[in-house]
Amino acid sequence: MTLLELIQEFFNGANFFRLLCELVTVEVLCHPHPRRHGKALHVLLLLLMVAASQVALYLLVDSDNASTALEAPICLVFTLLYLTLTRKADGCHIFYYASWAYFVAELATQTFVPLQAQSSLFNGGTALGFCLAQLYYILLSVGMGFVVYKLLLPGVTDSQTAAIPKRRLALHGLMMLLFTVLANYQVIYWLLGENNRINNNMITVYRWVVCTVCIFVLLLQNSLETLQRTEMELALSRQLWLLQKEQYELSQENIDLINRKCHDLKRQMEAIRQLKDEVEIDRQLEEMEHAVLIYDSAMKTGNRALDIVLTEKSLQCEGRHINMTCMADGSYLDFLDKIDLYTMFGNALDNAIEAVSKLEDKAQRVIQVAVYTEKALLMIRVRNYCQGKVSLENGLPATSKANKQDHGFGLKSIRSTAEKYGGDIAIQSTDHIFSLQILIPLPQEEPLEQAE
């Protein structure tokens, strides 16, 4: 046996392609997770996984009796091992990525390996044909990685930061087991009733169809979960909107009541001063007046709804030693619904208050609010200090709370309200500065009809 024949005997091209596709796929899917080691060590581990898998396949799989049931599971084991050694991800994410890689690799193997086998360019038993075949597999693996990045990655991004539901993992495990059993030669022969005489092309088509059905089922599950999550978010947003409507009405009544009481108290203090002129009484009255002024510092921007929410939040800031400044012309906001306006500013200021309240340096407990126009856009900006740089996901900050799926609706509600008026939000996070910008097109004034 020549050296080339020995290498070809030892090196199974189809399994090499299968493993390469799995490794490239998991690298694409788990890209957001940090690496455990440097790139050089990752490349070394990749080469070791490829070599070790070929040894294991050569020793454990007997191709003479069509015992191919172990080929895909062995490649999967080395993929799981590689992912565990190279990425900082929990076991659920590792299994989830590896299962997707398993089906992507199988689909690619059943599609492209038969094409290579039927091409005379890669056959003939020559060293050139062998090298061209391996180059063919490597280039196809890279191409499959690009396809996964464009088509599959957007469908699984929600699982990179959130916990993966157990039912999703269970279905992935069931589909992998089902495909492994149905794609085995012995099962195929038994199902089709032509033991050891079945056409190889028919086997390839059969495996391709089974793999495609499995992928379709998994994608359908992801779509249903996304739809359910969207419906839940819409229901929660609607519930929050109703609660904020009630809060707005109560806040309006409370602010009016406080203003009336403050006005009455100031009148009473003026009357007491005219009757008494003692130093101690003056001192006490000054303290009372100072306390009253805190509650009498109602914002006056020209928009009643904005005045209410700003006054309410300024009282919260006063209690938490937060300095909130506002430069706003409320007349620009008249075209917005009062509840929508209250919701946007309320959520934005709640987030800002929560962020600056965590700062130990009281000098940084500052919130800046600005409302102005630029060209044909209404600009609402809320800026505050924060701890470090805020990481963004899909244009929104990643929530720091444990239950990630039940939080983060504040900014989503702001974006939804802005989109209702044809606008959007823009978020910038630099070192220790967080800025929320709400951009809404100003309504265009209809031209006056010319007199005839």
Tell me the strand order in the biggest sheet: 1-2-3-7-6
Q: Give the CA-CA distance, first to last residue.
A: 102 Å
Q: Could you say which structural class the secondary elements and strand pairing correspond to?
A: alpha+beta
Low-confidence segments, ≥5 residues, pLDDT <50? 402-407, 446-452
Largest sheet, in brief, is: 5 strands, mixed
Which whole number gives the mean pLDDT?
77
The backbone outline, from C-alpha atoms, is: elongated
Radius of gyration: 33 Å
What helical percentage do the residues reach? 55-70%
Q: What oligomeric assembly is this protein in? A: single chain
Number of strands: 7
| Order of secondary-structure elements | HHHHHHHHHHHEHEEEEHEE
Number of helices: 13
Strand content: 5-15%
Provide key terms for this protein.
5-stranded mixed sheet, alpha+beta, 7 strands, 452 residues, 10% strand
Produce a short descriptive summary.
The protein has 452 residues and is α+β, with helices and mostly antiparallel strands. The chain is built from 13 helices and seven strands.
Describe the structure.
It is a single chain. With 452 residues, the chain is of the alpha+beta class. It is built from 13 helices and seven strands. The chain has helices spanning 3-10, 13-29, 39-60, 71-86, 91-117, 127-156, 166-182, 185-192, 200-275, 279-295, 304-319, 338-357, 409-420; strands at residues 323-328, 366-374, 377-385, 392-393, 396-397, 424-430, 433-441. Helix 2 (13-29) packs antiparallel against helix 3 (39-60).
